[in-house]
Design goal:
The structure is a homodimer of 302-residue chains.
Chain A (H helix, E strand, L loop, with lengths): L2 E7 L13 E6 L2 E7 L3 H7 L9 E3 L11 H10 L6 E5 L3 H11 L8 E5 L6 E5 L3 E7 L7 E7 L5 E2 L1 H6 L7 H5 L4 E3 L2 E3 L1 H4 E2 L5 E6 L6 H6 L5 E5 L7 H7 L4 H10 L4 E5 L9 H7 L6 E2 L6 E3 L1
Parallel strand pairs in A: 3-4, 4-5, 5-6, 14-15, 15-16, 16-17
Antiparallel strand pairs in A: 1-2, 1-18, 2-3, 7-8, 8-9, 9-14, 10-13, 11-12
Chain lengths: 302, 302
């Protein structure tokens, strides 16, 4: 069961010829999720050969253009290519109207249903959950209401020692309870789940934080995730700019990663003034070693 | 005095990895004009090294997304890069609200003024005129109100034979009238403009027609232009699709070019189903020989 993050855009507000504005494609246990959708996202999706009709969930962090100006174009193209399957969009209040006004101005509509779910300011909770994945959101601290997201690949069912269970007389109707981690009492005997099953791998988590200034609450929200994408628009020498615009530095991102004990840190949303991520890595590594600055098109397995 | 057209996007509604949606950059006698602004236009402008703060006039043909979804992002970037110089935008009613609602949703504004001029349905006239250029608009026939545009580089001032004029006693204060083509009567003598000046080259015209079905009125509007860009979304074997969607075929584009006696025809807005323009050229050439199917990034001198 795969769990990967493809960076479609790693740039900030001003796109460069190297970095598109923010967008990520997350594949998690056959669920296909788009996080943010800056201008040009549909072109990036096409260039990278991703099948975008598979996308069923779109999460929009906030209403700055570099995080959603590509959404209306993506939805239009899904329609033109014959989509009928509904789509779920989670984003700030106001997003629905901005998108649908543009769709209607073109004189038409969409052949598929969109379910818009509004994320209220400063709120948190579960956006979506099924047997295999869970998506949480939590507040970030930026100039407009902004949400971060955690995508969890759930603990898989434990693997059953079928031969042993059969030999010891465990009934087939009890197998699913043992695999779910329950112990069974049957005809006076106790069958421990751990005697008849083994772990099928741990729960895995990916967290997305962009855009935000450093805030202790964010650390709490991303505690222990395996992979953290955190914006690092500036370096410490532009602390004034970071404060004024409510963005983070590479140092901030590393501090969050360290305090939250994450597995690995990806830094993105780099200001157009930086030609590459070298200085970001130099600033972050003394605080948190396992970090990277992705390029557009890079894929990370969680 | 240069006059050139740079194709920023030659594709139709569904962008491909080869063709961006519609946008063109026109340079005419130091005036810098953008025609249409599909998604990703600002990234194309940057990749081609065009100085986009120079753009002072933006013409939007109609409110289908592949012709304007990139406008709000371009304006945002102009703002972020410090623009203070006002900009003129000409487009269909409703455009202003769609753009400004998105700008305001981001919690900010723009540091420069936009003057939006609405092009009423089925109307035509002069949008802009100064000493060097003129921009006209005229109605096209599509599913929503759509305008075509003609950009004219005006006849340059005639070149004066200064020695001859001096020798024959023409007063310096009459020079500009002779250069403008006027004859002068002075102290009983007549000085003919054509005796004292020569042509400095002809008036040049570029016309843009996208999106539209074939219509005799369009032929009238683009009569005799030096360069015509005409949409050719389909080929004749998809005539039904062309009729249903109010688009043109390569045959239609060639017919307009021939009937309007234009200098050269560029065909664009090719449906994503066509990998290249070969079949379009085969269909158009028997009707109108001097034609081309541009690629994104191509530059044409008018």
């Amino acid at each position: 069961m795969s769990f990967s993050v493809t960076i479609l855009g790693s740039g900030a507000a001003i796109p460069t010829s190297q970095r598109n504005p923010t967008a990520q494609y997350v594949q998690c246990s056959e669920r296909h999720i788009l996080i943010d959708c800056g201008e040009g996202t549909q072109i990036q999706i096409r260039k990278l050969g991703i099948k975008f009709q598979r996308i069923n969930y779109i999460l929009i962090s906030h209403l700055h253009g570099d995080h959603y100006f590509g959404l209306v174009g993506l939805l239009s193209t899904m329609h033109l290519l014959g989509r009928e399957k509904p789509i779920q969009i989670y984003g700030p209040p106001g997003l629905k109207e901005l998108i649908m006004n543009q769709i209607h101005a073109g004189g038409g509509g969409l052949a598929f249903e969109i379910s818009f779910v509004e994320l209220e300011k400063d709120s948190s909770g579960v956006l979506f959950e099924d047997a295999k994945i869970k998506i949480n959101y939590f507040p970030l601290s930026h100039r407009v209401p902004t949400s971060g997201f955690v995508i969890t690949q759930k603990v898989k069912e434990r693997r059953l020692f079928a031969d042993k269970a059969k030999r010891d007389g465990v009934k087939i109707e009890h197998y699913h309870r043992l695999k779910a981690g329950e112990d069974i009492e049957f005809e006076g005997k106790i069958f421990l789940s751990e005697d008849y099953t083994e772990s099928n791998g741990p729960e895995l988590k990916y967290a997305f934080c962009s855009d935000t200034e450093y805030m202790p609450n964010v650390v709490e929200s991303v505690k222990g995730v395996d992979l953290l994408y955190h914006e690092a628009t500036f370096l410490e020498n532009l602390r004034d700019r970071a404060i004024a615009t409510k963005h983070s530095t590479a140092g901030d991102a590393a501090k969050v990663a360290k305090e939250a004990s994450v597995g690995k840190l990806l830094m993105g949303h780099l200001s157009a003034r930086y030609e590459n991520g070298e200085s970001h890595l130099e600033e972050a590594r003394p605080v948190f070693e396992n970090c990277a600055v992705p390029e557009d098109g890079d894929v990370f397995v969680v």
